[in-house]
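Known limitations

Files may contain more than one protein. Parsers should not assume a single record per file. Below, a two-record file is shown to illustrate correct handling: read the sequence, read the token line, then continue until end of file.
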Amino acid sequence: MRHILLSGLAAALVASCAAQPQDAGMSGQTASAAPSAVTAAPVPPPATAPPQPLTPPPGAMAPAPQPGAMVPPPPPRYGGSFLSVIGTPFLIAFKIPVCLLTVVVAAPVAGLSEISGSNAEGAEMREGLRDGLARNCGPPYSVTP
């Protein structure tokens, strides 16, 4: 709407300037009122483009996500949360004895690996025992959906 109004005002300004007498030159004399042999052709109004929307369409101004930007996780599914609530007590009930059994087995084996003569094999065995203890006794402590 604003674009149409501005183009209409520009056309009116051009028409009013064409109707006023023009300077004959640098001397300051004005053109005579008598009709001259050369008449100015009427200036057609400027072509108007279709009106442009003042605001961009929705989503056009949204910034592009940065590479590596955090994307929010999708909302949890209801079946998964139900499984988490029901399954967590069973996980804890099974995790405690498995962890205790792992500690009972891993402690003497770690001691024996230290006593053995080869440090390379003993260090590799102790690393495996640490990984097993972390997997059997460490997180997660709840069922994840």
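...continuing to the second record:
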Amino acid sequence: MIFKQNRLLKLLLLLVIIVLGLAFIDNTISKPKVTLNIKKSDNNIIFSLASKRVDGFLNLKVISKAENKQLWDVNLNYFPGGNIQYGVAPNDFVIFNGQKQTAHQVFPPNLKPDSLQNSSEIDVILTYQYNQTDPLTGKKCYKFNLKNIMSKKIKAQAIDCDYLIATEHHS
């Protein structure tokens, strides 16, 4: 009877070690997951950022394809995710280490960005940091057509960042 209890205890301990090991591997090796959705609310464009295994979002750029120029660039300062209204940098949010931060608009400096036309197609470059122990950054790029938005939420279409960054538009 004691032999069976020891054997069960050893199996239980082994199972706990395996589960903890898999959880550790999943958190350290798994790639981060980043999603961007967009919606229109009261004539405002809202970017909805979500992530898994990401320390925070570092930068958001909006580029007009039709006009071939950058419209908005925001230093997000480790923004944890959530809704961002076009033209309004988020403020007073708490980041992964408990500190309070505020995002800052980089472009256009001290001005509101050009309005987005309902028929315009825009690209968005989203930069984020993941893996707190050995900080790495990643970029995710999206495109979407604003005439499809209306009032429902639309998931942006991911596109090739290398191509977009190589042909990045500057104002």
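Parsers that stop after the first record will miss the second one. For reference, the second record is described as follows. Helices lie at 2-29, 161-166.
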